[in-house]
Amino acid sequence: MKPKALKLIGAALAAAAVIAAPASPAHAETAPDAEAYDAYLTDLVETTGVPGLSAVVTHGAETVFAAGYGEDSNGDPVTERTPMRVASVSKSFTAMAVMILVEEGAVELDGPVAEQLPEFAMADPRAGEVTVRQLLDQTSGFSDTTIDVTELDDADSLEEYVSRLADDSLAADPGTDWAYCNANLNVAARLVEVASGRSFADFMRERVFTPLGMEDSATRDEDVMPGLGYNSLYGWWIAREEAPGFLDDSGSGGVIASAADMGKWLASQNGEGVQLVSPAGLEAMHAPSAVEDYGMGWGVESDGTLSHSGNLMTYNSVEWIDPATGYGIAVMSTGAGLADVTWTAMEGLAAIAEGGTPAEPSRTGQVYELVLLLAALAAIGLGVLGVVRSRRWAEKRAGRKLWRTALRMVPVLVPAVVFAAFPAAVSFLSNGRTIPWNQMFYFALPLTLTLMAAAVAGVAVAVARAVRLKSVGSAA
After folding, report:
1. Is CATH 3.40.710.10 the right assignment for the domain spanning 11-107+179-353?
2. DSSP classification of residue 441
3. Domain boundaries, the chain
4. Per-residue pLDDT averaged across 233-245, rounded?
């Protein structure tokens, strides 16, 4: 689940793009019609091959465009009413739930979390200083580098999730640094439960979704069942169960919604239609913290727009609003791959809405994956050739000094070293987020399999050469 500052696997690893905000050209004198949005998205879906995509564009309180493309995992057409996982876009929803309680006096925004949620404790005395605001703008000191996020993913409830933080610590003094960490919003969701006396699912339904008219939205699969998402395997999209993790009632990424519902949410976030909090409360949620251009579940851009992306292992999403023009955009996809199609779609829709011309859809993602496929096949072929020629290789080096022979083995073992370091490298590129091994076989599947093929081929050649050296030496 990644924010605007979070990098996907970059071009340095033969993967895709760093997230960047869309340009905001001058506002059009004449608003574009729905056909312009539809033509762009139709071309984008056809070009990228993404299995399912839905989008909505709002202007003020009005939904000016909403549509779906492709099919879901059941073979039904994707429409603007198809529920999809919005992943980390959920963070802005959780912030809204907290702000509702703040304005009702049930939560103190700048008060310590520990005083309002007594069950919250960590193996770090500084945790007692963390405020509710710092959870929402992610300046609490929470970080994947000092919190065992893998352990947290096994929790069965928000209460258990918070209890598992007891042996973790902070990476920085509260309020002094920004780090994207899902634990922030999950603790905030538990605070909603305790302060309201309702489950997080019930509170979101009663106080957020229902007032806004979001009929296809929930925080639990049992309430709104999304279809399976997809991963790309060298250009072939395969339907898969979402990776195991803490999703039901997750304040950091558990919301399920349709494009039609997201339109109502975006209008409200732009101060139009049904309002859940005061204008001052909405402004506070959209304001950046003192240490990062990130508000309460929103990335704050230099041009005044706000956005947040959401990335699970089989779903991608993005939301974007421009308070100056009143436009709002949300895009969701059932396909998660090396490149995030939803962000590209949002940029194109924003350009159209503001009177500009969107960039032509690109097949760059498919090209990357074709190159990776060819590289995997080449690695396998070279591995087979190396094993076949291992006897000849060993005979040429029989009798030579061992250290010289060992050095000649190093090149074929380099891919194995790179593969072993792969999750750590991706985590580093992801702003310190912890990306475990199992997740490498989802959105990064083509790159992972290519690296694995090269690693296995190299190890096979090294073993074959070692065995041949031993037999040649014995024969001598």
Report:
1. yes
2. G
3. 11-107+179-353, 364-475
4. 93
